[in-house]
Amino acid sequence: MRKSGEGLDAMAKYRVVATCYSPVQDGGLAARMITQEFAAHRLHHHNVHCSFSDGMFTLIAENDFDAKGLALLDEFADCMSAYTEGIYSDMKVKSVTSNEN
């Protein structure tokens, strides 16, 4: 069983998982574009990965400032608006784990 925060980047304090639903046709492409967007322009988040399965997007990222996951959620919403033409719903922070003791 994994301990809270285990596996986090040494610089990161928080690992945030955010999800949302979207009925878009090519969710896989949108997920790749969101991952690339974070890698190129949202450098304050690390180890970012977005995936799509059965209509659900999942975004995972690490950072040192977002204890509630709301900053990541806000940026995720920006990307969803851009890469799914604003067709999404039920966006939420699924979990936040910390490597602080």
Strand order in space, largest sheet: 2-3-1-4
SSE arrangement, N to C: EHEEHE
**Shape descriptor:** globular
Q: Supply the helix-strand structural class.
A: alpha+beta
Distance between the termini: 17 Å
What portion of residues belong to β-strands?
25-35%
The Cα radius of gyration reads 13 Å
- What kind of sheet is the major sheet? 4 strands, antiparallel
Quote the average pLDDT. 90
Number of helices: 2
pLDDT < 50 runs, ≥5 residues: 1-6
Give helix % range: 25-40%
What does this molecule look like?
The chain has helices at residues 27-41, 70-83; strands at 14-21, 46-53, 56-63, 89-98. It has 101 residues and is α+β, with helices and mostly antiparallel strands. Strand 2 (46-53) and strand 3 (56-63) form a beta hairpin. The longest helix is centred in the middle third of the chain and has 15 residues, at 27-41. The two termini are 17 Å apart.
Q: In a nutshell, what does this entry contain?
A:
With 101 residues, the protein is of the alpha+beta class. The protein is 29% helix and 34% strand.
Key structural traits:
alpha+beta; 101 residues; disordered N terminus; 34% strand
Topology of helices and strands:
Elements: E1 14-21, H1 27-41, E2 46-53, E3 56-63, H2 70-83, E4 89-98
Antiparallel strand pairs: 1-3, 1-4, 2-3
